[in-house]
Design goal:
The chain has 275 residues and is of the alpha+beta class. The protein folds into three domains: 36-147, Jelly Rolls; 175-204, no CATH class; 206-274, AhpD-like (Up-down Bundle), CATH 1.20.1290.10. The protein is built from eight helices and 13 strands. It has helices at 2-21, 150-153, 177-182, 187-198, 209-223, 226-238, 243-257, 259-274, and strands spanning 36-37, 43-44, 47-54, 61-68, 73-74, 77-78, 83-90, 92-96, 102-104, 109-112, 118-122, 128-135, 143-144. A six-stranded antiparallel beta sheet has the order 1-3-4-12-7-10, with no helix packed on it. Helix 5 (209-223) runs antiparallel to helix 6. The chain is globular, with a radius of gyration of 24 Å. The relative contact order is 0.10.
Length: 275
């Protein structure tokens, strides 16, 4: 009897292991899932969910690629087993309840401990995309709480990243980029650049900073403006435009503006992307 029981148990274990071994790798291709607008009950502003995934048992991890337009953010919320954020494009913000706001950039990996009340989202004038990964506990991976108020969101950053600014509008204890380039010769033009172009036009809600960057880069390439193109390629990346998207803009424009200007743009982009 003991021999029979042991044999039966061994066969069951073998069958279980073999069943797991027979499971094939699953690949969800990019673009195969329709993007979804994040629910307004849990988010403020324009937020898109894409490439969502959920591990099959016994795994319990899941997540999605989350794209925040400028100023968009999550509600305050918690995760029973914590959460990992991997920043891919743009500039974002994350804050734990009671702590200062932290600024995050592409390549940063953020770990939120279990049960910690927090929020995350894009910077006020820059879009941000991240992958969010969390595990389920008893079938639940998140507890949504109240919205992040404009006052809470607009607090001054006190982290080391606070000195970094968006759109080169200001530099701590120093002149703006416009003042550096032309303040000595054309101070009024520098003032208009800072106050009207960057201070008003770039902040208008009709287009996101990401879209404005695409329009501006395309215009600069079409007009052969190499000096401004360098800085705006860097700004476009900060605003969430990928290098692949910028390369596609150059390819597209070759048919409308001519090969020489497109090739010049590629040469400049290669220098900018290396930095």
């Amino acid at each position: 009897m003991k021999l029979f029981a042991a044999t039966t148990l061994s066969l069951l274990v073998f069958a279980s292991v073999n069943a797991h071994a027979q499971q094939a790798i699953t690949i969800t291709r990019s673009g195969s899932q329709p993007a979804q607008k994040a629910p307004s009950a849990n988010f403020t502003g324009q937020v898109t969910l894409d490439t969502s995934f959920r591990a099959k048992e016994p795994g319990r991890a899941g997540g999605a690629k989350v794209s925040f337009e400028a100023g968009a953010r999550t509600n305050w919320h918690t995760h029973p087993l914590g959460q990992t954020l991997i920043i891919t494009t743009g500039i974002g913000r994350v804050q734990r309840w009671g702590d200062p706001i932290e600024e995050v950039h592409p390549g940063d990996v953020v770990w939120i401990p279990p049960g910690q009340k927090h929020w995350h989202g894009a910077a006020p004038t820059t879009a941000m995309t991240h992958f969010a990964i969390a595990e389920q506990l008893n079938g639940k991976s998140v507890e949504w709480l109240e919205k992040v108020s404009d006052e809470q969101y607009g607090k001054v950053l006190t982290s080391p990243q606070a000195a970094k600014t968006v759109n080169n509008e200001t530099r701590p204890n120093g002149p703006t980029r416009a003042q550096q380039l032309m303040g000595d010769l054309a101070p009024k033009l520098a003032e208009l650049t800072d106050e009207v172009l960057l201070g008003d036009v770039w902040k208008r809600p009709g287009l996101s900073p990401r879209d404005r960057s695409l329009v501006t880069v395309a215009s600069l390439i079409a007009n052969g403006n190499e000096t401004q193109l360098r800085s705006h390629l860097a700004l476009a990346k900060a605003n969430g435009v990928t290098e692949a998207e910028l390369a596609e803009v150059m390819t597209h424009l070759a048919f409308y503006t001519g090969w020489p200007r497109a090739i010049s743009a590629v040469t400049i982009a290669r220098e900018v992307f290396k930095k």
